[in-house]
Every structure is written in C-alpha cells, then in structure tokens.
C-alpha cells in the first residue's frame, strides 16, 4: 500500500511536507495561505460585484439603499461559496481525515 505522506517522492520533490489546508493540494507548501486568499477573494469579489449591481439598480430606480443590500448579499454569498468549496473548515485535512486533536506522537519531549 502506498504511504499517503510520501507524495513528494512521487512528484519529484526532495522533501516531505505535512498536511495542507483544506481544499489545497498537498504539493503546495503555502496551503493555508492559498486557502485564506481564496476565501478573501470570494468575499471581496462578491462584495464588489453585488455592490456594483446594487449601484446600477440604485441609479436606475432612484434609490440609495440597494447598494448596501448588494454588498451584504455579496459578502454572504462569498462566504457561502468558500464554505461549499471546503475552504473554511479547519478540522479537516485535504484527504478528508479529521485533524489530529490529541497529544503528539513524539511523547512528552516538549513538556516542562
């Protein structure tokens, strides 16, 4: 059986990495950063797009509040998309295994 932690050797990498952030491939060393940037992009992109739609509707209909509703809708929609893509869960790894929650396997080497 193939060891899932030794993916670096199969892909030509010279060193092993631990687990990566949810939704990000294991070959990428900046998994948490990339997942965070994806969440940020979804939320900010949703706010910008829906605010512009609300601004246009405000202009056409002569109102002032639809732009704010659009910004709120965009933020909620961006968070929903990032959640549906699995980028906001901190308790799962890329392989859909639960994250380690107990003591480390190396024993009490860091205990004081």
UniProtKB/TrEMBL annotation:
Regions crossing the membrane: 39-57, 63-82
Keywords recorded for this protein, A-Z: Membrane, Transmembrane, Transmembrane helix
Keyword Membrane included in the entry's annotation: yes
Region described as Disordered: 1-27, 90-112
Name of the featured protein: Uncharacterized protein
Source organism of the structure: Pseudarthrobacter enclensis
């Amino acid at each position: 059986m193939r060891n899932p932690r030794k993916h670096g050797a199969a892909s030509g990498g010279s060193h092993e990495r631990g687990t990566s952030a949810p939704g990000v491939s294991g070959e990428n060393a900046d998994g948490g950063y990339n997942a965070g940037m994806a969440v940020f992009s979804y939320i900010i992109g949703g706010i910008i797009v829906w605010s512009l739609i609300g601004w246009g509707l405000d202009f056409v209909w002569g109102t002032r509040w639809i732009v704010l509703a659009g910004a709120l809708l965009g933020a909620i929609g961006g968070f929903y998309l990032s959640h549906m893509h699995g980028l906001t869960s901190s308790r799962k790894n890329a392989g859909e295994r639960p994250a380690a929650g107990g003591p480390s396997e190396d024993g009490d080497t860091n205990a004081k």
